C-alpha cells in the first residue's frame, strides 16, 4: 500500500502534508503535488493534514490512474520537503470536479 495525491490537489497545492512526511516523498508540479510510491512508507500522517482531502490510500477503489500519475511525475518533478503557501486560487478550486482533464499541468514546480 501507498498513499496517492488525487485531483483535488490540482490548482490548490496545499503543502501541509509535506511538512509532516517523515521520508520526504512529495514531489512538486506546477499546480499539484505527487507522492513517490516507492518512497512512501504508508504511515498515513499526510492524509489527515490535507485541507483539500486530496490524499488517499491506493487501496481505495478507482485510484489506479492516480497511482500511475503519482509514480510517473515523482520521477521527473523536484522533491519538496518544506511547507509553502497554497496557490492563490486554492479556495476557489477546492472541491471542483474533473480537474485532471481541465487544469492539470505536467510542468515541474520549484521544489526545495
TrEMBL record:
<protein>
    <recommendedName>
        <fullName>Ferredoxin</fullName>
    </recommendedName>
</protein>
<dbReference type="InterPro" id="IPR000813">
    <property type="entry name" value="7Fe_ferredoxin"/>
</dbReference>
<dbReference type="InterPro" id="IPR017896">
    <property type="entry name" value="4Fe4S_Fe-S-bd"/>
</dbReference>
<keyword id="KW-0003">3Fe-4S</keyword>
<dbReference type="GO" id="GO:0051539">
    <property type="term" value="F:4 iron, 4 sulfur cluster binding"/>
</dbReference>
<dbReference type="GO" id="GO:0009055">
    <property type="term" value="F:electron transfer activity"/>
</dbReference>
<dbReference type="GO" id="GO:0046872">
    <property type="term" value="F:metal ion binding"/>
</dbReference>
<keyword id="KW-0411">Iron-sulfur</keyword>
<keyword id="KW-0813">Transport</keyword>
<keyword id="KW-0408">Iron</keyword>
<dbReference type="InterPro" id="IPR054829">
    <property type="entry name" value="FdxA"/>
</dbReference>
<dbReference type="GO" id="GO:0051538">
    <property type="term" value="F:3 iron, 4 sulfur cluster binding"/>
</dbReference>
<dbReference type="Pfam" id="PF00037">
    <property type="entry name" value="Fer4"/>
</dbReference>
<keyword id="KW-0677">Repeat</keyword>
<dbReference type="InterPro" id="IPR050294">
    <property type="entry name" value="RnfB_subfamily"/>
</dbReference>
<keyword id="KW-0004">4Fe-4S</keyword>
<dbReference type="InterPro" id="IPR022569">
    <property type="entry name" value="Fd_C"/>
</dbReference>
<feature type="domain" description="4Fe-4S ferredoxin-type">
    <location>
        <begin position="31"/>
        <end position="60"/>
    </location>
</feature>
<feature type="domain" description="4Fe-4S ferredoxin-type">
    <location>
        <begin position="1"/>
        <end position="30"/>
    </location>
</feature>
<dbReference type="Pfam" id="PF11953">
    <property type="entry name" value="DUF3470"/>
</dbReference>
<keyword id="KW-0249">Electron transport</keyword>
<comment type="function">
    <text>Ferredoxins are iron-sulfur proteins that transfer electrons in a wide variety of metabolic reactions.</text>
</comment>
<dbReference type="InterPro" id="IPR017900">
    <property type="entry name" value="4Fe4S_Fe_S_CS"/>
</dbReference>
<keyword id="KW-0479">Metal-binding</keyword>
Amino acid at each position: 500500500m501507498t498513499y496517492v495525491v488525487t485531483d483535488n490537489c490540482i490548482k490548490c497545492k496545499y503543502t501541509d502534508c509535506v511538512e509532516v512526511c517523515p521520508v520526504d516523498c512529495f514531489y512538486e508540479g506546477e499546480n499539484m503535488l505527487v507522492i513517490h510510491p516507492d518512497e512512501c512508507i504508508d504511515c498515513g500522517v499526510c492524509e489527515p493534514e490535507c485541507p483539500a482531502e486530496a490524499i488517499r490510500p491506493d487501496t481505495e477503489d478507482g485510484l489506479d490512474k492516480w497511482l500511475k500519475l503519482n509514480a510517473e511525475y515523482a520521477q521527473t518533478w523536484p522533491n519538496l520537503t518544506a511547507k509553502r503557501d497554497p496557490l492563490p486560487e486554492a479556495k476557489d478550486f477546492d472541491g471542483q470536479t474533473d480537474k485532471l482533464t481541465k487544469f492539470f499541468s505536467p510542468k515541474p514546480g520549484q521544489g526545495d
